[in-house]
Amino acid sequence: MEQADLDLIRQARRGKPEALADIVRNYQQFVYRTAYGVLQNATDAEDATQEAFIKAFRSLKQLREDRTFPTWLARIAVRVSLDMLASRQRRAQLPTDEVSPAISGAEDAAAARIDVDRALAHLNEEHRMVIVLRAFHGLEYDEIAQVLDIPVGTVRSRLHHARMQLRRLLGGERGDG
Amino acid sequence: MMDRCRDWESLLTAYVDGELSAVEEQRVRAHLAVCPFCADLLAALLADERQVAAYAQSIEPPPGLEARVVAALAEDHQVVQSRRLIYVYLCCSIIGLCTLVGLVVSPFGSLVTLAFHFVSAVMRGLMAIPTAVHQQWLVVAAAFSLVLLGISLFGTARVLRSSRKSEVVL
Ligand SMILES: [Zn+2]
């Protein structure tokens, strides 16, 4: 985490509105990608991003160490996304198979992206979350453990099963089961 | 595929993440050197990793999201502030009410009530004078002369004070 971001968080604690706007600018991609990874839907990911930032700034006093801000924010984003996922499942709306507007790019790369999109949609929540935190953001195992509130050993085994599942969905060779 | 390689699989994913101890990493390297199955799996896992990372990179928040979030934060801040203001207002009125009740109940409160009764009795007495003497013009003249007396006393005092000051200066 950069010194500039640490300064911003200190200013945000003092209630400086410009600091909040700068933090949103610097971390919106991080939060949005996390939410999108869990929710697999652009509209829901936008709503989740907004709610995650509101929750984060409301409870900024509860952040004990400024330098743990990214994992703390990821934790909030994951929880908001999971809540949203639960309410969406209550409404019995299944994720759509159509290509989301958030995924765009050249034709050749697009096919690979759709593959990952479908594969992630087939993973269960627990597996999808560890993949999002590790493969999307490159968090360390102990950071993932903090975000998800699980032991490091569980992170390791979950990531293993998620990867083997993903392997089966993406390549079909030597996957789990 | 060899069944005994199942045991290596869990180590391979942690190896991809660089989360193995030095000893474990050494063992995995040694196995990879002699096992084409695990070497293939490692290559596939690394390819998956790159594919998922590329996918993550392609997820871009829509251009309007930042402004939307900032606006929502400002609105939330206002809601929280106004809620806080209502709490402050409620607390103040409760404290005020309690103080009032306390004053009335306490000995000091009865003293205040007594003083109030006394002042109101005096006022009522003063108001009754004009009708009692049946000569309102006398009362008006008395009040007027009282005011005049006050003004002249005030004027004299000022003149005295200013003359004393000029003496000091001279
Ligand atoms: Zn092997």
UniProtKB/TrEMBL annotation, chain A:
InterPro entries: RNA_pol_sigma-70-like, RNA_pol_sigma-70_dom, RNA_pol_sigma70_r2, RNA_pol_sigma70_r4_t2, RNA_pol_sigma_r2, RNA_pol_sigma_r3/r4-like, WH-like_DNA-bd_sf
Classification via CDD domains: Sigma70_r4
Gene Ontology biological process terms in this record: DNA-templated transcription initiation
Pfam families: Sigma70_r2, Sigma70_r4_2
Sequence ranges assigned to domain RNA polymerase sigma factor 70 region 4 type in this UniProt record: 115-166
GO terms assigned for molecular function: DNA binding; sigma factor activity
Gene3D superfamilies: 1.10.1740.10, Winged helix-like DNA-binding domain superfamily/Winged helix DNA-binding domain
Keywords: Sigma factor, Transcription, Transcription regulation
Domain RNA polymerase sigma-70 region: 23-91
Similarity remark: Belongs to the sigma-70 factor family. ECF subfamily.
Name the UniProt record assigns to this protein: RNA polymerase ECF family sigma subunit
UniProtKB/TrEMBL annotation, chain B:
Transmembrane segments: 86-116, 136-157
Top-level taxon: Bacteria
Protein keywords: Membrane, Transmembrane, Transmembrane helix
Entry-linked InterPro entries: Anti_sigma_zinc_sf (IPR041916), Znf_put (IPR027383)
Residue ranges of domain Putative zinc-finger in the record: 5-36
Annotated family: Belongs to the zinc-associated anti-sigma factor (ZAS) superfamily. Anti-sigma-W factor family.
Name of the protein this chain belongs to: Anti-sigma-W factor RsiW
Provenance organism: Alicyclobacillus sacchari
